[in-house]
Amino acid sequence: MNSLNPRTSHPATAAHGSVGAPMLRLYGKRIVLRPLNGQDFAAWSECRKHNADWLLKWEPLRPITQPDPANDRDIFSARCNMRDRERQTGTSYSFGLFVDNAFCGEVNLNGVMRGAMQGATIGYWIDQRKAGNAYVAEAVVTLFRFAFDELHLHRLEICIIPRNTNSLRVVEKIGLRNEGLAERFLEINGIWEDHFRFAITVEEWLERRDALARSWLSKD
Question: Model's pTM, two decimal places?
Answer without folding.
Answer: 0.89
